[in-house]
Amino acid sequence: MKAFSAVLIVALVAQASASPCTDICNGSCDMVQQTVGLLFPQIATIVAPNIEICRQSCTAVCTCTDGCTAQCNPAYEACISAAKAAYNPFSMVVCQAQYAVCAGPCNMQCSSTIVSGLVQQVQGFAATISQTVSVAVGQLMGPTSAP
């Protein structure tokens, strides 16, 4: 139980200090891998490929999301600094709205890109499963002879 608590505390500290999507998402994948390795070492090798898939999914999702943040944050930070300097809380609301106007279309584009990528991954996975099943059935049936 102490080991689990230690892993949980390390994971929470890592999550709290990470800010971009990629760091947070990959941190979640790593936390699962470490927890499984610690609590269920006998299945760690089975889980390892899934952790890699988790990281690849993080990269696909977060590359776009982090790009939107990088695109919109400079104007937002400048707006917030000016609002704070002017002691104007209403301006901070305006800054939030301007950020939403910037990030909204970017995030919508990310969503369509992500959905398209997921559909392609599912199609590829289905083709791989189909091929694997065909090979397995062929091996079970053995060689066929023509009459």
UniProtKB/TrEMBL annotation:
Signal peptide interval: 1-18
Keyword entries, A-Z: Signal
UniProt keyword Signal present: yes
Protein name as it appears in the record: VWF/SSPO/Zonadhesin-like cysteine-rich domain-containing protein
